[in-house]
Amino acid sequence: QVQLVESGGGLVQAGGSLRLSCAASVRTDTDYNMGWFRQAPGKEREFVASASVHGSLIYYADSVKGRFTISRGNAKNTVYLQMNSLKPEDTAVYYCAARDLGTIRIGVPPDYWGQGTQVTVSS
What local confidence, expressed as pLDDT, does residue 41 receive? Predict the structure, then answer.
């Protein structure tokens, strides 16, 4: 069982930027495909972005394309989400996710979830 730990959330004004980080909390020999989801109040959790083990396959939700960038870190099982040009509608709890086999995307769900980090964008 892998545990994922997110950091980097916070409060930012519209148009600002934030960078989220996620890392597996325990050492493991498994290389995970990783990604990010978010859940706004009163809404279902939705896919944001994902990257394969070495970052060769990357997917984005249409709502964040051109504004968010996902990247894999040099350390094993780390992933980042650079969020630029933030909008109030990006306000949500952001969850890191991991999957053993196959890149996470719509229809290919994660195996593991982090606890989430709050991102609030003020207008």
Answer: 93
Residue 24's pLDDT band, with cuts at 50, 70 and 90, is confident
Q: Which residue, 105, 49, 46, is CA-closest to 72?
A: 49
Q: How far apart are CA 9 and CA 94, in angstroms?
A: 8
Q: Which two tokens stand for residue 21?
A: 């980080």
Backbone angles phi, psi at 90, to 5 degrees: -85, -5
Torsion angle, alpha carbons of 38, 49, 51, 18, to 10: -80
Rounded to an integer, what distance in angstroms lies between the CA atom of residue 34 and that of residue 15?
Answer: 26
Q: Which of 29, 35, 25 is nearest to 2 (CA)?
A: 25
**Cα angle for residues 98, 92, 105 (degrees, 5° grid):** 35
User: Is a pLDDT exceeding 80 seen at residue 26?
Assistant: no
